[in-house]
Amino acid sequence: VLASLASVGAILGAVTYAPLSRRHRLRPIIGGTIGASVVSMLAYLGYQGPASAIASDLVGGFVSMLTQLAFLDLAAKACPRHVEGTFFALLMSISNGGTQLSQNVGGRLYDWVGYTPLILISAVMTALAWNLKAWYGLLVPDRARGLELVRMEFRRFLHAIILLPCQILRTGRKIVYRLLGYNEWLKDFFATFQRLTVWETG
User: Fold this and answer.
1) How many angstroms separate the CA atoms of 189 and 124, rounded?
2) Tens-digit pLDDT profile for residues 49-85
């Protein structure tokens, strides 16, 4: 029953997104859906009876669909011309991988910390999406360049770090990503990538 209510909420979210996306720019929609996701996640702290269960799952399904559609919209608009299909497929692969990883980590955290701390962790991690640019800037090895990134206007950050033209080649058993353009931030991009790789393997 609760899964059905979540599905009803998702349908309502899909119906709501169409007029919402026509009346408002994407950036405030994404900011709003991140905030709504945090609130809906914290609402599970009051999950104590039939009424709260119905409300939480209905609202959760609604907010989840709004958020998903907003980010699919962003992914579609971020695709470079002439490689739209490949780029969108790559973004969806990263998204699906992140979803599987979050479910795995969430299951392990539930056994380790319990229900209430897991809800709070999920809400905090969702809220961090508001400051993604700031977090990335703090990870840049060159502190001065990192602080410049933190202060950078988002549209410039988008083109300097995220919307990099790239050719994807399959050679043998390897996938090669060949950057087709150059900008002054590529050195910092690769230095940050190397730093994250060291942390992951360490």
Assistant:
1) 26
2) 888 888 888 888 999 999 889 888 887 877 777 777 7
Matching residue, tokens 């905090």: 124
Look-up of token digits 């945090």: 38
Contacts 24+ apart (CB under 8 A), 127-135: 127/34, 127/38, 129/34, 130/31, 130/34, 130/35, 133/157
Tokens of 96: 């699906």
Encoded tokens for 23: 């009346």
- What's the pTM? 0.65
State how far the Cα of 23 lies from the Cα of 4, in Å rounded to an integer.
30
Three-state secondary structure readout of the chain: CHHHHHHHHHHHHHHHHHHHHHHCCHHHHHHHHHHHHHHHHHHHHHCCCHHHHHHHHHHHHHHHHHHHHHHHHHHHHHCCCCCHHHHHHHHHHHHHHHHHHHHHHHHHHHHHHCHHHHHHHHHHHHHHHHHHHHHHHHHCCCHHHHHHHHHCCHHHHHHHHHCCCEEEEEECCEEEEEECCCCCCHHHHHHHHHHHHHHHHC
